[in-house]
Design goal:
The chain is 43% helix and 16% strand. With 454 residues, the protein is α/β, with parallel strands linked by helices. About 1% of the residues have low confidence.
């Protein structure tokens, strides 16, 4: 049967544009009630029974039978062996990507991410003390595909920030179980593991690594077990069970974000080869059926050319069925009045990935206010950002780029305010504090300040 990818054809000139546009963007982050309850049960069980519960759920959901948690922990020499066993080009690419990501995040760390102080005219010292988190958990997906790039993007900023312990968890399901994916070798416990992911863990400086996934892995990281240490923060994407578990443990630990389906928005002026744009749309659509790929362009003939490229290129794609379902279900090719209107619509969407595929991308960049990452120019495909450009590929989705930012070193640091009031300075500050404290009816606050006054 011939696969058909039919993104919706919209036009801002049509009276029904707003209705159709809103319908296309709609995606609910609400999780199925049954999943929520099941996740709640798993988390409670892991909290109560620790390793025993983790082993049972790993056997049930991943099909991996392990006698104890030791069988599920990857040793440092296994990561080294995985790295050494890769083809030379994969080793070099992994190291080159890691170096670029590290270089970028080290630069980022210097931009306001350091402890700094100053003294005012009274000699009072004010400032901030920046310290890394002690221990973080990195979740690496392993269901439909394996993502060594995701591991690099999560672990390296943590390492650069100065986090002492990085605990990695990743499912290694048996093929045919609830979740399968990744090419690799079977572990002693029976699961499929991806050597490129293990090698990436070695390159990124992961402290400990466990072959567990799902809600049980999130529970183990959040609460700690006899084997898995409790962490301060959990980062990394996962399926609906993982997302639900992260929401439930937030407060007990920090989390990065609740990620929705992957998104790409391409602003095109018609100057880029249509095949390039079609493939860029494919690059997100191939993630899963709920991923969203949208083209905004003021040239109707160019939109037709992109659709023709989609039709021509789709049959040769290994994940053609997923791409077709994604483009048909959530994709859109939108004709705009001009590029200014396209930029305005892009701000409303606030996409995860935003490509400005035009002759003069710098002309339009100042108009773009909301996006996880902005890719400027025809040569800057989103896939380069996914793997090796340097900036983090863990980005806000589902419109949350309006108020949130990409994962960074800042997510693995915290700030403590530094205040050292001088004997002279307290004469002014103490009087102010006394007045306000009395106004709030907090006499001990007021007296504490007043005792220091001359």
């Amino acid at each position: 049967m011939k696969l058909i990818a039919a993104p919706a054809r919209l036009s801002t000139a049509r009276a029904d544009f707003e209705q159709d546009f809103a319908q296309r963007l709609h995606w609910s982050a609400d999780t199925d009630a049954a999943i929520e309850q099941r996740v709640a049960d798993i988390l409670a069980d892991v909290r109560a029974r620790g390793d025993v519960a983790v082993l049972e759920y790993t056997a049930r959901f991943d099909g991996v039978q392990a006698p104890d948690m030791a069988a599920l922990e990857l040793k440092a020499d296994e990561l080294q062996v995985a790295f050494d066993g890769l083809p030379a080009d994969q080793r070099e690419a992994l190291q080159a990507a890691a170096a670029r990501i590290r270089r970028y995040h080290e630069w980022q760390k210097t931009q306001g991410g350091e402890t700094a102080t100053y003294r005012d005219e009274d000699g009072t010292l004010l400032g901030q003390k920046v310290t890394p988190l002690d221990r973080v958990g990195i979740y690496v997906p392993g269901g439909k595909a394996a993502y060594p790039s995701s591991l690099l993007m999560n672990a390296i900023p943590a390492h650069v920030a100065g986090v002492a312990e990085i605990i990695m968890v990743m499912p290694t399901p048996v093929r045919g179980s609830v979740a399968t994916g990744g090419t690799g070798t079977a572990t002693a416990a029976g699961g499929e593991r991806n050597e490129l992911v293990l090698a990436a863990a070695h390159v990124a400086g992961v402290t400990r690594a466990f072959t567990i996934g799902g809600a049980q892995a999130i529970g183990a990281l959040a609460y700690g077990t006899a084997t898995i240490p409790k962490v301060d923060k959990i980062t990394g994407p996962g399926n609906a069970y993982v997302a639900s578990a992260k929401k439930r443990v937030f407060g007990q630990v920090g989390i990065d974000m609740i990620a929705g389906p992957s998104e790409i928005l391409v602003l095109a002026d018609g100057s880029t080869p249509p095949d390039w744009v079609a493939m860029d749309l494919f690059s997100q659509a191939e993630h899963d059926e709920l991923a969203q790929s949208i083209l905004l362009c003021p040239d109707a003939a160019y939109i037709d050319a992109v659709q023709a490229a989609i039709d021509r290129l789709l049959p040769d794609m290994p994940r053609a069925e997923i791409i077709a379902k994604s483009l048909t279900g959530r994709g859109a090719l939108i004709l705009t009045k001009d590029m200014e209107e396209a930029c305005a619509i892009a701000n409303r969407i606030a996409p995860e990935h935003l490509e400005v595929s035009s002759r003069d991308p710098r002309r339009w960049e100042p108009l773009l206010r909301h996006a996880g990452a902005i890719f400027l120019g025809a040569y800057t495909s989103e896939s380069l950002g996914d793997y090796c450009a340097g900036p983090n590929h863990v980005l806000p989705t589902s419109g949350t780029a309006r108020f949130s930012s990409p994962l960074s070193v800042y997510d693995f640091q915290k700030r403590s305010s530094l205040i050292e009031v001088s004997a002279r300075g307290v004469q002014a500050l103490g009087r102010i504090a006394s007045v306000l404290a009395h106004g709030e009816g907090l006499q001990a606050h007021a007296r504490a300040a007043e005792m220091r006054l001359k």
